[in-house]
């Protein structure tokens, strides 16, 4: 069993994991397309045009209908897309704990997640917030 990549963990975000702004975006275009935005633009700012054209990067990523919805609600604004690093780290740590509880060794987990044995022990001792 291989560990999840950051991209796959981003795809599993639920609305409660998102920042207030990203929850507002999800209310407009839905959670799956919001996840696409976070995956593609994490840690950057994106300008939402008032009028979206078919060659615009958001149209390419989401499709014209969704890009137009974003323009309708956020047109003229620059949105800061969060990295979601702490949420992804918590998801990774939950996954490590679950796999350890299922019988995988610390050494196997350390190798799978490119962490040290000590880091795995810290996660197992301190829990998800480690």
Strand line-up of the largest beta sheet: 1-2
Form type = elongated
DSSP strand (E) fraction? Answer: under 5%
Number of helices: 8
Q: Domains counted in the coordinates: how many?
A: 2
Q: Termini separation (Å)?
A: 23 Å
What percent of the residues sit in helical stretches (DSSP H or I)?
55-70%
What string gives the helices and strands in order? HHHEHHEHHH
Tell me about the largest β-sheet: 2 strands, antiparallel
Poorly predicted segments: none
Kindly provide the radius of gyration, computed on alpha-carbon positions and rounded to a whole number of angstroms: 18 Å
Compute the average pLDDT. Answer: 90
- Based on the structure, what is the oligomeric state of the protein chains? single chain
Give the helix/strand class.
mainly alpha
- What is the tally of beta strands? 2
């Amino acid at each position: 069993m291989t560990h999840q990549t950051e991209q796959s963990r981003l795809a599993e975000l639920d609305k409660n994991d998102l920042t207030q702004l990203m929850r507002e975006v999800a209310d407009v275009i839905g959670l799956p397309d919001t996840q696409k935005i976070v995956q593609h633009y994490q840690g950057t700012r994106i300008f939402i045009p008032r009028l979206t054209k078919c060659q615009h990067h958001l149209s390419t990523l989401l499709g014209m209908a969704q890009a137009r919805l974003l323009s309708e609600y956020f047109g003229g604004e620059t949105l800061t897309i969060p990295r979601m690093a702490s949420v992804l780290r918590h998801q990774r740590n939950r996954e490590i704990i679950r796999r350890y509880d299922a019988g995988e060794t610390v050494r196997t987990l350390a190798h799978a997640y490119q962490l040290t044995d000590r880091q795995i022990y810290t996660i197992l001792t301190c829990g998800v917030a480690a």
